[in-house]
């Protein structure tokens, strides 16, 4: 998860939404929260991680103060049982169970690809 304080005048943050990159307009006195793949896995896809990027602007300087939070390397990620029970009528467990360190190793090789292949790749990793 990434928590950031965005510049209130110059944009630069973009999200990938249904194909094209979309500008995130600067908002004063606000905090930007980017959910990571781990939150997507824990919620069994109820909350999606956001593919994002920052672009350089020529119309001024900007500032974005970010704090990234990662799990312990031995943390085990899997859909929360309470959410699976709640969603039992709609869907099964879609996201695999994995160890965070194994995920980060796989992420390093697939970093600039779409996120779906990362989750798919974790289904083939035997972390246990």
Counting DSSP H or I runs of 4 or more residues, the number of helices is 4
Q: What's the number of domains? A: 1
Radius of gyration: 17 Å
The major β-sheet equals: 3 strands, antiparallel
For the record, the CATH architecture stands as Sandwich
CATH classification, class level: Mainly Beta
Shape: elongated
Helix content: 10-25%
Number of beta-strand segments: 8
Average pLDDT, all residues: 83
Please explain how this structure is put together.
The protein is of the alpha+beta class and 128 residues long. It has one domain: Jelly Rolls (Sandwich). Helices cover 24% and strands 22% of the residues. A 3-stranded antiparallel sheet has the order 4-1-6, with no helix packed on it. Helix 3 packs across helix 4. The longest helix has 11 residues. The model has no long low-confidence stretch (mean pLDDT 83).
In short:
It contains 4 helices and 8 strands, in the order E-E-E-E-H-E-E-E-H-E-H-H. Helix 3 (100-110) crosses helix 4 (115-122).
């Amino acid at each position: 998860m990434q928590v950031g304080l965005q510049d209130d005048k110059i944009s630069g943050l973009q999200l990938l939404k249904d194909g094209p990159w979309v500008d995130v307009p600067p908002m004063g006195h606000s905090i930007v929260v980017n959910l990571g793949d781990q939150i997507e896995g824990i919620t069994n896809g109820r909350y999606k991680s956001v593919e994002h990027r920052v672009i350089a602007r020529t119309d001024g300087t900007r500032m974005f103060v970010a704090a990234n939070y990662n799990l312990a390397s031995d943390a085990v990620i899997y859909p929360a049982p309470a959410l699976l029970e709640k969603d039992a009528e709609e869907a099964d467990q879609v996201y695999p169970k994995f160890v965070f360190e194994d995920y980060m190793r796989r992420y390093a090789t697939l970093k600039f690809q779409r996120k779906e292949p990362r989750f798919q790749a974790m289904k083939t990793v035997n972390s246990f």
